Amino acid sequence: YGIMIEGILAAAGQDIRALNNSLSLIKSWLAMVNGGVSEGSIQQPFGGGQNVTSSATHVETWPYGVSAVEWSHQNLAPAGLPAWKFPINATNIIKHMGSATDGDQDAILGMIHTSHALGHPADFVDMTARTVIAFVSADLGFPDLYRVLPGGEKVFVPRMGSMWGGLTPEFGRYKTTQQPWCYSPGYFAPAHYRTMRDFLIRHWKKDFDDYLPPHLDGRPTNLRSILQAFESAVTTGYNILYYSSCSSGSVSNWVGVKSPCADDDTLNCRGVPWEHTPWVGPHGGQCAQSGTKFGSFGADASRSAWRIAMDYVLHREESHRVVMYNRQGYRDEGMLFGAQRFLNRIVVQYASKSLCDGGILGECFWNTSSPFRVAAAFDAKKAHVSNIVCPNVPNAPLSWWAGFMAYPTFTAFVAPYDEIGAEQMTNWMDTFASICNFSAVDKWNYSRGGKPHGGVCLDTYFEASQAVIATMVMSNTLRPIFGRGGRRDGLVTVLADAGGGDGARPRGDIGLVAGGGRGSTDFAAIGRRLLAVCGGLGVAVA
User: Fold this and answer.
1) What is the pLDDT of residues 28-54, one digit of tens each?
2) What's the angle, vertex CA 498, arms to CA 494 and CA 501, rounded to 5?
3) Strand, coil or helix: what is 154?
4) Among 199, 263, 275, 355, which is 20 to 30 Å from 535 by CA?
5) What is the band of 144 on the pLDDT scale with cuts at 50, 70, 90?
């Protein structure tokens, strides 16, 4: 998260410290891509491969895909994706090797924003382009790991890392290292994929063709095919999200995308990855990793809200309506889904199931400092609460009172919903911003000040990081850098939308002035204070 947060802040022009922090973290990232061990030796560049020659740099060497581009027309060091966990030594290398898609895509989003802040110098563009190429190959499976729908559409399913997840085969030459056919909707980052696509469109050079991985049969690839892979990953991700979520906005941590080919060494064939989602296959199979439960709304799934909110903020028109398919893989014009409709589910849940109206200032805290009244909206044990558990999310959720569960859901209010007016939407975000008191926090040196106080104001790594990202999305800090988002400077402007899904009819322009105006909250200041919390804890890691 560190590279992403600091890069976005640098692009917003808030503080030279953010640019310096981002550059420092990116240098560390590149060092990890090259690889290093505390003792013994390692194949370099190590990337997201194993400790075998060419594992990271040749598409045909296990694991499938290129996770590092080791050379450069600019005579630069290797660029790409690192192993998911450091430090690495002789005893832990097997457990720590392989990339992690969620961290990779967040870091790359930060790199692109840092490039923007720097004015896109040639050497930085070259490094970032090679990193994007490594991501689309190792983490999305480009160019050969895909399925083909009945209409001929290629379907790239984001993997969970270079060695497992998504469509990675269960057996064979490129077999998975972990549970097969497993996928986490919380990894799905459409804003990131579109931003990578736009970066390549604007900064591609003919020389970059030399960095591209070929097909396994030796055929060359090109920029157009990479762009198509990103578009496919977005469409695929939204379709899997639809079949992995409830009308409340709850999402499963882990789901299945089983769609095997006729033999284990064939990487692409006809199939529909979401045919049995959330189950792994037709017989109710399950999968899970990271200590979170299959089919439950928990720590891995909670990130879905801010990832989709980012898509709405950065790519509003594109995220409005996604091409949707039924279980058999045929296009269904009657299925209306996209970023705004997903976020509206969460807004409706808070508005209809909370024990107060957060659209009225002060109502939720009139005799208490506890946010228990809004927490009730996602308390599956409450009799009046429904649809936290449903066929797409079949198991009980983790508690809202974990900060990493609550804060991401607040970002849903960046998208309009026509049953709630502009002022009320502003007031809801003010209500959420009132949960924590940061008056005692030293925003530059956390160790010198007091801790934040409130019901869900934890300062441990994962809780604080989710709060930082959520408030950054809500604060007008995250802005389109390629001119596709339709956003006016200084406003969280919400575009009108025709029609609606799940009973939610989106509404036109809401101007939520960040840091000024009646009923507004300085979310940017809150975000900076939370960043201070992370800095004090040493949280600014990729």
Assistant:
1) 999 999 997 655 678 899 999 999 989
2) 95
3) strand
4) 199
5) very high
- List the end-to-end C-alpha distance of the chain, in Å, as a whole number: 5
Choose among 373, 412, 417, 421: nearest CA to 519.
Answer: 421
> What DSSP character marks residue 114?
H
Compute the distance between CA of residue 349 and CA of residue 338 in angstroms, rounded to an integer: 17
Summarize pLDDT for 401-448 with one digit per residue, the tens. 998 999 999 999 999 998 898 889 989 999 998 899 888 988 778 889
What tokens does 86 get?
A: 């450091």
- Predicted pLDDT of residue 133: 98
pLDDT digits (tens, 9 = 90+) for 363-400: 999 999 999 999 999 998 887 888 999 999 999 999 99
Question: What are the structure tokens assigned to 358, written together?
Answer: 């957060």
- Give the C-alpha separation, 214 to 471, whole Å: 41
Phi–psi pair at 183, nearest 5 degrees:
-150, 145
The residues, ordered by sequence, that sit 6+ positions from 449 with a Cβ below 8 Å of its Cβ are 440, 441, 442, 443, 532
* Pair of tokens at residue 418: 């026509």
| Upstream peptide bond of 87 is cis (omega within 30 degrees of 0) | yes
| Residue 430, C-beta contacts closer than 8 angstroms, at least 6 positions apart | 361, 519, 520, 521
Which among 190, 187, 196, 132 has a CA at the least distance from the CA of 164?
187
Q: Give the C-alpha separation, 152 to 237, whole Å.
A: 18
For 103, phi and psi rounded to 5 degrees?
-70, -35
Q: Please say if the pLDDT value at position 538 is more than 90.
A: no
Q: Are 14 and 33 in contact (CB under 8 A)?
A: no
* Tokens 């900064």 found at: 203
pLDDT > 60? residue 491: no
The Cα 61–Cα 470 span in angstroms is 39
Q: Is the pLDDT of residue 534 over 80?
A: no
**DSSP secondary structure letters along 388-457:** SSBTTB-BPPPPTTSHHHHHHHHGGGGS--TTS-HHHHHHHHHHHHTSEE-TT--SS-GGGSPPPEETT-
Q: Please, what is the average pLDDT of the chain?
A: 88
- Is residue 157 within 8 A of residue 163, CB to CB? The reply is no
The radius of gyration computed from the CA coordinates of the chain, to the nearest angstrom, equals: 22
Q: Which of 92-101, 126-135, 142-151 has the lowest mean pLDDT?
A: 92-101
- Find all residues with CB under 8 Å of 211, minimum gap 6, and list them: 69, 129, 130, 133
- The DSSP H or E segment spanning 155 is strand 154-155
Report whether 110 contacts 6 (CB < 8 A).
yes
DSSP H or E run through 231: helix 223-242
Confidence of residue 90 (pLDDT cuts 50, 70, 90): confident
Query: Rounded to whole angstroms, how far apart are CA atoms 140 and 159?
Result: 6
How far is Cα 431 from Cα 423, in angstroms, rounded to an integer?
A: 12
What's the CA gap between 67 and 159, in Å, rounded? 13
* H-helix or E-strand spanning residue 340: helix 339-353
Contact 373, 366 (CB under 8 A): no
